Write the structure tokens for this entry.
Amino acid sequence: MDGAVDRSQDTHARTSLIPATLIRGDGIGPEVTGATLQVLNAVGAEFEWDEQVAGMGALEDVGTPLPDSMVESFRKTRLALKGPLTTPIGTGFRSVSVALRKEFKLYANVRPARTMVSGGRYEDVDIVLIRENTEGLYIGFETVIPVADDPRAVAQSVAIVTRAGCERVTRYAFEYALAHGRKRVTICHKANILKAVSGLFLDVAREVAAEYEGRVEADDVIIDACAMKLVMDPSAFDVIVTTNMFGDILSDLIAGLVGGLGMAPGANIGADAALFEAVHGSAPDIAGKGVANPTAMILAACMMLDHIGESERARRVRDALGATLRKGDELTPDLKGDGSTEGFTDAVCRRLD
């Protein structure tokens, strides 16, 4: 499905290291990445890290947030773990994440949202959103049209959606559902208004869904109704597949259902490359204070372990992380605790079975 290498038969002893690119990130990035590496080491997940810089750190060091050396490293390893980056404002540089998605055709953005801390507004949320990652309005085909003495009288943005792109991401969603024991895929669209671009996505998604009849249930919902239903009853959803911009919005919404972006990991999957990341920002206001929550980054590393066939190690980390969150010791301030990044990470490591 996603180019994973099955190493599940030998999860406790491995003779060779897995090559991977490591980008610690900006702001709190080095802190949450360091915490994640500590957990990976504790669970025995050994990688051969090729450490690279990107974002503001790279801009300051080498004059670009997207150094060629980093791109070439990822081209070689085809596997990367990335901390949060700061996109420079007003410099003309594009987002590193968006650039990597385009360069390596990382067409599927996978964003799980699962309740790990009780006592919130919702219990037992367990949703995976799969977003098309390379098409739609985010391709950046934009034009400003001057009229008379107004140089910005009209702005135009063009959305591009292809049959191949729709088929690829929808098939990924159904294969993901099969591989992870999921029961239903919901196709989210706006075909009632955007009859061309969203209509194509819906038509192709329904064609793909028909191939999985009897194995995975399928339904579809209009984007605005989907947003309302997610807030009213998140348990009505299992896997959601949608287009680029809709997925961008809904992925943050479902993160909010389980405590916010600090609990939200993400994966960007292509045919032969994959990048895993915490999807929250670099939080420069708390950088260096030792209070950053590493949960999202640790969960992203778990997704990376799943991807390479190390699901048993991923399970052990998730169990230890969940137990630490439920116990409530050493919780960081964003989780209403007074603990530190170091203390929280140590607590997770102590609970690894």
